[in-house]
TrEMBL record:
This is cyclic-guanylate-specific phosphodiesterase. Residues 24-278 form the EAL domain. The chain holds residues 668 to 955 of 955 of the full protein. It comes from the Bacteria. It is found in: Cell membrane.
Length: 288
């Protein structure tokens, strides 16, 4: 038996099909429905300036409000979204929703310096990516300078020569760029020089054992120094303890993000946080 899947692909569905492939196909169909029914929502995790202690950025983290299973995190559906290519329409929707939310905050005088959006390989590989981003910015009225794109080393390395061209086009638009999960991929340091990236984001796996494992401590310290020597800013993700925070402060890390400071939150809760901060530091406005 064959079943028409939409687009041009025909999928075969047999009882012999292994359970994993079956589950994936089922998840894929559910993801397609989730797009139609608009079941995706954005959470935002604050990024704090270690110097001033202010909220300077928000990372957009996708959630799926499943009608039966409740709130589902990306680790459960991102592999299938990537594999099926559904990450492209999903990612476009995330980008648009993030820009719209940014404009809403701006209109209330609450917008932080930046909103960071994760971009997958499948999105980055598309010919029309630059166009989609510039159109989304134009249509929503969100300022390119307030948008940060998080690209992993894998995303950057998967695209060969096209990568530098794409990154340059994004920089020319005024978009801010960060390497996510830095240190976990297999990019070479030579690429750091070549890629017009603004920020390194130290992966949580190094931050986790920072205070117990001297190797992780050395890697984190070296990454901060490397970033600064290359004129990049450095952010650490997954900060969970005061000891980790103190280490990062002592080593001059620019920004931090993690459960210690705040978990990813829905937009309404972020609005409250931003209001509270505005009251605390009324003069704090955004540098160009
Ligand atoms: P990521 O971009 O590296 O995001 C950081 C992940 O670490 C998030 O998980 C966040 O909730 C979690 N996290 C933050 N602080 C802490 C902490 O202190 N401790 C611990 N244990 N975890 C912390 P989340 O939201 O489950 O997202 C997982 C991954 O899914 C993200 O990793 C990113 O690669 C991907 N992802 C999320 N949203 C999107 C999206 O809109 N598009 C794409 N392409 N990928 C996304
Ligand atoms: Mg990220
Ligand atoms: Mg990350
Ligand atoms: Mg990570």
């Amino acid at each position: 038996r064959s079943k028409r899947q939409g687009g041009h692909s025909v999928q075969f569905y047999t009882p012999e099909m292994n359970a994993e492939a079956h589950d994936r196909l089922q998840l894929e169909n559910e993801l397609r429905k989730a797009l139609e029914r608009d079941e995706f929502l954005l959470y935002f995790q604050p990024q704090w300036d270690l110097g001033g202690g202010t909220l300077v950025g928000l990372e957009v983290l996708l959630r799926w409000q499943h009608p039966v299973h409740g709130l589902i995190g990306p680790d459960r559906f991102m592999p299938t979204a990537e594999h099926s290519g559904l990450i492209v329409p999903i990612g476009n929707r995330v980008l648009r929703a993030a820009c719209e939310q940014g404009v809403a905050w701006r209109e209330q005088g609450l917008l932080p310096q930046r909103i960071a959006v994760n971009i997958s390989s499948r999105q980055f590989q598309r010919q029309d990516m630059i166009e989609v981003i510039s159109r989304t910015l134009a249509e929503t009225g969100f300022d390119a300078g307030r948008l940060e794109l998080e690209l992993t080393e894998t995303v950057l390395m998967d695209n060969g020569d096209a990568t530098v061209t794409m990154l340059r086009a994004l920089k020319a638009m005024g978009v801010h760029l960060a390497i996510d999960d830095f240190g976990t991929g297999y990019s070479s340091l030579a690429y750091l020089k070549l890629f017009p990236i603004d920020r390194l984001k130290i992966d949580r796996s190094f931050v986790m054992d920072l205070t117990h494992d001297s190797d992780d401590a050395a890697i984190v310290a070296a990454t901060i120094a490397l970033g600064h020597n290359l004129n990049r800013t450095v952010i650490a993700e997954g900060v969970e303890t005061p000891a980790q925070l103190e280490f990062l402060r002592q080593h001059g890390c620019d920004l931090v993000q993690g459960y210690l400071l705040s978990r990813p939150l829905p937009a309404e809760e972020i609005t409250e946080l931003l209001r509270a901060q505005r009251v605390a530091t009324p003069e704090a406005d955004v540098p160009a």
